[in-house]
Amino acid sequence: MKYMKAIFIIFLFFSIPQPSLADHAPSPVNELDDIADQALQLTKAGKYEEAKHLLNYFSEEFAAASMHQSFSMDELRILTISHNLALEAINQADAGIEQKVNAVTKFRLVMDALSSHYQPLWVEMEDPIMEAFKGVKTAAENGNSEQYHSELNMFLAKYNIIQPSIKLDIPVEQAQALDARITYIDQYRQKILESTEATAELTNLQTDLEHLFENKKEDEADPSLWWVIISTGSIIVSTLSYVGWRKYKGQRESRESERQKN
């Protein structure tokens, strides 16, 4: 019984997350991510002045964070462009709420992609993007030109929101191939609508999009969680092996003692 209690205590020790100093000290990148998220929430609430102040504050904090956190040239370029577009949309008086929200959302997803090592927020856009693409393909198959162009414009607008963050999370070659296919479909949209062979490009794009989201979801598990599971499992196996060996040793000594008495 005492061995089983020991196993239970060991299991609890390794299963419960241990507090650390890092839990109480957010990194500069995580703080920037929080600022971007607050700016998005304010934009959605129609509080554009407050959102603008936060976006400007982000620039100041980012300059300070860059002293301690290194970013690649591509990361800096993508983040800077998305931030400038968000600020431009917020300052644009004649821009509608959807345009403002989309611009700040794009910036928010980029910052999240830089701060998250798994479970990026852009993956959550899978349903609306795939639903929009489904409308494109259905309209093309039905030969409905007006609906096809409308659905394609809607899909392109949704994909445009996640495009910058995708470039930060997937291999360059994959991102370029995906962009090239989408650009081709956009530029030759009428040809694709009228040609059966060209319509196959839509099927190819659907496959690429499905792989994009599926492959990223496979990487969502936190590596530290797997380390805890493996470590805990190893300790439990070792403990059980030790308990089994002690039990076997005890039984053997008992049998030898009985034989000596006889």
TrEMBL record:
Question: Which branch of life, at top level?
Answer: Bacteria
Q: Which UniProt keywords apply?
A: Membrane, Signal, Transmembrane, Transmembrane helix
Pfam families found in the cross-reference section: Spore_YpjB (PF09577)
Q: Which InterPro entries match?
A: Spore_YpjB
User: Which stretches are transmembrane?
Assistant: 225-245
Q: Does the keyword tRNA-binding apply?
A: no
Signal peptide boundaries: 1-22
Q: What is this protein called?
A: Sporulation protein YpjB
In its UniProt entry, the species of origin is given as Rossellomorea oryzaecorticis
Q: Give me the gene this protein comes from.
A: ypjB
